[in-house]
Design brief:
The chain is mainly alpha-helical and 184 residues long. It has 5 helices and 3 strands, in the order ααβββααα. Helix 2 runs antiparallel to helix 4. The longest helix is centred in the first third of the chain and has 31 residues. It is rod-shaped and about 85 Å long. The termini are far apart. The C terminus is likely disordered.
């Protein structure tokens, strides 16, 4: 049995038609590759910035989630370090949470409705890596209770839940010969 006008036999009988179809396929493939290249280049240029609710911290991230800029207002001079750390991380997560939406916009603009399955997988991956933060400004963690005073006449024993002693941090005066660029 032979199929009418659509089988491989038709291509064999008409080599010019076969060449035209392959050229069309190759041109379509090249155009698709150019659209994907343009989408990739535009995605790599994406930058998302978030600022903490008090305006003290501003974080800019790229489409891959890496921090590309971090700025502070003068307000941070009075922040305890744990509060500053929380503000940085919360603001960074807020900036990262917009990545999937921005990448979706680029893909829609550059690719239209092309490759929905690929787009869905990519965007689901980004949403999993960079979810919307549950609470934009997390409340400060409670301070641990103070240690009980040591008994007189002897060294204090650590409470049973205490882990091993942590080594001194760099740049804290533990070793005056040690060089450290840590501003904290």
């Amino acid at each position: 049995m032979t199929s009418p006008n659509n089988g491989i036999g038709d291509l064999i009988r008409d080599p010019d038609e076969a060449i035209r179809r392959m050229d069309d396929w190759a041109a379509g493939f090249a155009a698709k590759a150019q659209r994907y290249q343009a989408a990739q280049e535009e995605t790599e240029r994406l930058r998302l910035t978030a600022t903490s609710s008090d305006g003290a911290v501003s974080v800019t991230v790229g489409a891959d989630g890496t921090v590309t800029d971090l700025t502070f207002s003068n307000k941070v001079k009075s922040f305890p370090l744990d509060e500053l750390s929380r503000a940085i991380l919360t603001t960074m997560r807020r900036a990262q949470s917009g990545i999937a939406e921005k990448v979706a916009g680029v893909m829609s603009e550059q690719l239209g409705d092309e490759d929905r399955e690929t787009r869905t997988l990519l965007l689901d991956n980004l949403r999993g890596r960079f979810p919307d933060p549950d609470e934009p400004d997390e409340p400060p963690a409670a301070e641990p209770p103070p240690s009980p005073p040591s008994p007189s006449g002897g060294a204090a024993t650590p409470p049973p839940s205490a882990g091993p002693a942590t080594p001194p941090r760099r740049g804290t005066g533990a070793d005056p010969d040690e060089q450290d660029n840590n501003p904290w």
